[in-house]
């Protein structure tokens, strides 16, 4: 079945770049997403990439997609303390009406 | 815009009690879903609906019922609460759930923290 895996924790210093990695199993996924969850809140979409793209840049965010290895990454440039949150990788399964989420990576940003 | 509204925010139940978590959206979305969030396990899909009168099971449906009598509302019912159902529950909606209208991001409610003693 479908599965999305990501590491659980990442710690970086303020001003450094953060890279969060994710692997997924369903090669028919149409869209891949990064959602952000701040404490006590629901998830909000951070960025997304369509499955026929290799890269997408949006201000401080860069998403890289390697379809061959089914690997997705999110790079946050110039990481700030306000970026501390849980980041979820997710895939929209083609024709399945399902968005499958990874376990989430908790990003700690040290001042 | 209200978006997705969930009630209650917090709930404590005793084992065996029943309750309904409410979810409403005002964006005229066809697709609505319920997830539970547990530490280290991310979000797991409980049930989803692709329109009024249509529901289907997700990954972890046991112990939960849903119905969709209107486009706006998608309540989640716990029939006989068990400690294993202690979790944070999120309702989410999107336009169609298929991606046919673009990236179709999910809009999430703020969650219900449920404890079953």
Detailed description of the structure:
The complex is a heterodimer of chains A (111) and B (117). Chain A is mainly beta and 111 residues long. Chain A has strands at residues 4-6, 9-13, 18-24, 31-37, 43-50, 55-58, 61-66, 71-76, 85-93, 98-101, 105-110. In chain A, the strands form 2 sheets. In chain A, strands 2, 4, 5, 9, 10 and 11 form a 6-stranded mixed beta sheet that branches. In chain A, β9 (85-93) and β10 (98-101) form a beta hairpin. Chain B has 117 residues and is mainly β. Chain B is built from no helices and 11 strands. In chain B, strands 2, 4, 5, 6, 9, 10 and 11 form a 7-stranded mixed beta sheet that branches. The model of chain B has no long low-confidence stretch (mean pLDDT 93). Chain A binds chain B through residues 4, 8, 30-31, 33, 35, 40-45, 48, 50, 88, 92, 94-95, 97-104, and chain B through 4, 31, 33, 35, 40-45, 48, 50, 56, 58, 90, 92, 97-99, 103-106, 108-111.
Low-confidence stretches of chain A: none
DSSP helix fraction of chain B:
under 10%
Structural class of chain B: mainly beta
Percentage beta strand of chain A: over 45%
Helix content of chain A: under 10%
Radius of gyration of chain B: 14 Å
List SSEs of chain A in N-to-C order.
Answer: EEEEEEEEEEE
- From the N-terminal CA to the C-terminal CA of chain B, the straight-line distance is 36 Å
Please state the average pLDDT score of chain A.
92
What is the end-to-end distance of chain A? 41 Å
Give the percentage of residues in beta strands of chain B.
over 45%
Largest interface: A-B, 26 and 27 residues
